[in-house]
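fold description:
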Amino acid sequence: VQLQAFGGGLVQAGDSLRLSCAASGRTLSLYFFGWFRQAPGKEREFVAQINWHGNLPYYIDSVKGRFIISRDNAKNTLYLQMNSLKSEDTAVYYCAGGSGMDYWGKGTLVTVSS
């Protein structure tokens, strides 16, 4: 399975941005599909994940109510709609998938200026 995240960029605090992650290969392996991020000088952290059917999203507390994770299995694509962005959301965002998050894509940089 190959994953590629894109959609990052430079935005201002309060703006919105949507990340996408395109999957190819054995995409049926991607029962869980999710987003992680790594801020400068910090450990990589989990952000959100969603199951195959798309009915069980899960978020870390800091993004609840602001971020929305979704997936389109027909397009083999994962999304992260990020609203009300804050400077602390600045990070490289990675998509990952699989029963144990076995597959990872290269990240996309999100920079939120205050």
